[in-house]
Here is the input.
Amino acid sequence: MSLLYSPIESRPELLARLYLHGVLPSLVDLLEFYAEAKAILGDRSFVLRIRAEALISDLSFQDGACHFLKESGLSPAIVLRFFSCRQLNRQFSGHGFTLPLPVRGAWRIGALRTFTSLSRCLKTTLVPNFEPSGADDVLALERYLHLSFSVALASTSVLIEHEEFAHRLFSGMEDWMVMVRVDGTDICGWVRRDGGCFEWGRGVPAGRSSAELSFRDTRVALKALAGNFDNFAAVNEGAIRLSGFAPLADKFGLVMDRVQAYIDT
Here is the structure.
């Protein structure tokens, strides 16, 4: 619905930020909740950096888990360089096959293959192809929502900081924090502005949130995050609840509703 307010921007740099700082962090959740991803990583440990122009993302794989860091200061064993944001966007969107240049660690064949397999697993997992019915399907939906929540929250943070429409929407506001959760589950996360810096995280935040956006159940959350849901009608029906400082929650929902449109570009 929020796209009625402003069309998505066509800047390659913004889309690259969404892929690097919005989508890639969900590798953390992939390795936490999916046994097949853990099997792919095995006992390998390595730090990999992806670069596209001035953008950097570091991924640290260790002890069967992944840690995501922006410009971490680590010394990566592998550095994959895209020569432009457009090149990276073609690779991540699947609209072209343009391999990055391994400027460091080209000999780490096992680690490179592992990262490629994990990336493929993430891409496949982020496309849901189920309609939950039984208990197993409900668990599969909750696992999927952990991943999609990470993408939605991280990408919403990116848009508020770097997209013209979203940044203008939040301009002039004091520090704030919005919590987003699914009722009856442990699926929860937050985004905040603190001293001009934007952060997001998983779980219940340590501090008091300024506003809260709650989905009635996993099915409502699935539809809302897919970007094809009448969120205004859902609010009126109580399927989505806004509490706390309502104008902040409403603005946040408008921006979060834009995420899928970018990723589907």
User: Anything to note?
Assistant: The beta strands are 46-52, 55-62, 65-69, 78-82, 101-104, 176-182, 188-194, 197-202, 211-215, 240-244. The chain has eleven helices and ten strands.
